[in-house]
Amino acid sequence: MLGLWSLLLLWGLVTPCQGLLETVGTLARIDKDELGKAIQNSLVGGPILQNVLGTVTSVNQGLLGSGGLLGGGGLLSYGGVFGVVQELSGLKIEELTLPKVSLKLLPGFGVQLNLHTKVGLHGSGPLGGLLQLAAEVNVSSRVALGVSSRGTPILVLKRCSTLLGHISLLSGLLPAPLFGVVEQTLFKVLPGLLCPVVDSVLGVVNELLGAVLCLVPFGALGSVEFTLATLPLISNQYIELDINPIVKSVAGDIIDFPKPPVPVKVPPKEDHTSQVTVPLYLFNTVFGLLQTNGVLDIDITPELVPSNVPLTTTDLAALVPEALGKLPPGQHLLLSLRVKEAPTVMLQNKKATVSIPANIHVLSYVPQGTPEALFELNGVMTLNAQLAPSATKLHVSLSLERLSVKLASSFAHAFDVSSWEGEKLGSDPPNIFASNHSLFTVDLDVGIPLPKVLNVNFANSVLEIIENAVVLTVAS
C-alpha cells in the first residue's frame, strides 16, 4: 500500500469586473507586470538577444546577424538602399541596444507595446575613414489578444511603426546633405527591420502562453488536462484566462462530478499581483479519482503500528468488557478500511476539510493465519486540510479531526461505540481509534499541477480559502 494515513496530496465567460467564476474552471489573472517581464526576459535571456546584437554563430545567423536582413547584402549594406550613395559604401547596422520595454493593456483588444532602442551604424565616410552613427528609435506596436488554432491564448501583431529620434554622429565626417539622406532612408527601412523583432518577442511569449494547454500525468492514476474554456479577457491591469481542468482516469475516461450550484465569488485582484483560483470542483474530482482507484483503502496491520499503540484484543475487550470480554487475550488486530463512496471536500470560512465515508472492519490478526472478523463499523472520517503552494502545485496535507462511527455488525452482542468517537481525538479515555488517529493517514507521491501561466511562480503566494475555492495571489 502507499503508507500510513497522513494524506499528502500534491496540488491546480465572466468579465473581470464581475468577480464571479460562473464556470468550474481554474481562473488565472495575469498582471500586466508579468507580461512585461516575460517580454523583457525574452530579449535578455533567449536567442532574440543574440540575434539583436548580432552575436549568433555563422551556423545560425539570426534576424540581425551578418547573414540576416541587416548584414552583408542586406537593406542597409553596400548594394542595398545606400548603394545609390557611393560615398556611404558599406553603411550597415552593427549594434542594437537592448530595448527598453513599456506596455499598456487595451481593454477588449490587446496590448500597446513599445520598444525603445538605439541603433548603431558603421560604414565608410565620404572622405575615407570609419563613419559611426547612433540613432534613437521607438518601435510602437498594437498587439491583439486571441486564441490560436491549438486553443491557447496568443498575441498577434496587428500594427507596427517606428519613430526616429535623435541621430548622433559619433566619428567621421558627414556633410549635411548626406546626413539628410541617412535620416530619410532610416525612416523608410527601420519599420521593416525592427518590427520583425517584435514578432520574434511575441513568438517567445506565445510559447509561454501556450504552456497553459498541457496534459500532466497524475501519478499512475490518470492525468489532468488544461484547456482554455472561453476567450481570454483583458482589462487595463490584467489578462484573465478561464482554464478548464479535465481530470481523466488512466483509461482515458473523464472523471466528472456535479458542478457547484452557485458561482464562485472571486475576490478582486490588487495591482501588481497575479492570481489563480482553484475551484472546489477540482478538489472533489481528484478525491473521486483517488477513491475509484482504491487509493484511499488501506489495511493497518501490527507491522505498521508503533509499539506504544494499543491495538490488541486485550485493549479492545477492556473498552467493552460485557460484549468483547471473551476475546482471546493478547492477539493483534487488523483494521481494514474501505472507502465505498467519494469523499466530500468543503472550502469555507478560511478552512478546508475532507469527509471520507469508510467501512472499518476489525479482525483478529495471526501472522500467516487467516484473520477472523470481530465486528464492522460504518464511519465518517473528517480530516482537516492544510494547504501549501509550491512553484507549480498546491499541496494538501490531511490530519484526522474527528471520527463518527456506528456498529454495522458484530460476532458478539451489539455494543455501544459512542465512546470511540469524538469531536477531539486523543482525549481520555483513550481508545484504539481516538488516541491513535495518526493511523488514519495516507501518503501519496502524486500531484495536481497549477496551470502554467507565463512561468508565474506561486511558491511564495498568499493563500486564501474562500467559499468553494482557493485563491493564490503572488506579487509581480
Automatic annotation (TrEMBL):
Domain Lipid-binding serum glycoprotein N-terminal, chain residue ranges per copy: 29-271
Superkingdom to which the source organism belongs: Eukaryota
Signal peptide feature range: 1-19
Keywords for the protein's UniProt record, in alphabetical order: Signal
InterPro entries attached to this UniProt entry: Bactericidal_perm-incr_a/b_dom, BPI_fold-BPI/LBP, Lipid-bd_serum_glycop_C, Lipid-bd_serum_glycop_N
Gene3D superfamilies assigned: Bactericidal permeability-increasing protein, domain 1, Bactericidal permeability-increasing protein, domain 2
Residue ranges annotated for the Lipid-binding serum glycoprotein C-terminal domain, each copy included: 270-474
SMART domains: BPI1, BPI2
Sections of the chain in a coiled coil: none
Record family assignment: Belongs to the BPI/LBP/Plunc superfamily. BPI/LBP family.
Name of the protein this chain belongs to: BPI fold-containing family B member 3
The species this protein was found in: Galeopterus variegatus
